[in-house]
Design goal:
The protein has 136 residues and is mainly α. The chain has eight helices and no strands.
Length: 136
């Protein structure tokens, strides 16, 4: 992904909103590797924080349907704000698990999600169907 200050700021803002709705905060530990990479790419520390915040949100929401439903709009905004085609679509999976493919797809489309995010909705739905069949 090409790092763009404005899109990273929007993505981080939406993740902070989601974490706030969940009553969570991510504390950034000092990491000399991040500092070294920042010397080459000034936006890398923000990109790195976004990854950790996304992972914290996913780990909190995964398998927690009521929690997803309670913060649904914030999850949708976080997915829509993530325009990177190389981004993991973990938050898409919690939406699909909580409300199903059709609603997740319709809500993300209405909110202006990228085509890549919408492809992940179908991928997640298909993966879930395979897992259900395998466990039966």
């Amino acid at each position: 992904m090409e790092l763009d200050a404005r899109s990273l700021a929007e993505q981080e803002r939406c993740l902070d909103e989601l974490l706030g709705a969940l009553g969570l905060a991510w504390d950034e530990p000092a990491d000399p590797r991040v500092e070294a990479l920042a010397a080459r790419q000034p936006l890398y520390p923000q990109y790195h924080r976004i990854g950790h915040k996304r992972q914290l949100a996913y780990r909190t929401l995964d398998g927690e349907r009521r929690l997803v439903l309670g913060s649904y709009d914030a999850v949708v905004r976080a997915v829509v704000a993530d325009r990177g085609t190389d981004s993991p679509r973990w938050l898409v999976s919690v939406l699909v698990s909580a409300v199903g493919r059709r609603r997740a797809e319709a809500d993300l489309l209405a909110a202006g999600a990228s085509a890549d995010a919408l492809r992940w909705v179908r991928f997640q739905a298909a993966a879930t169907a395979v897992a259900v069949r395998a466990s039966s």
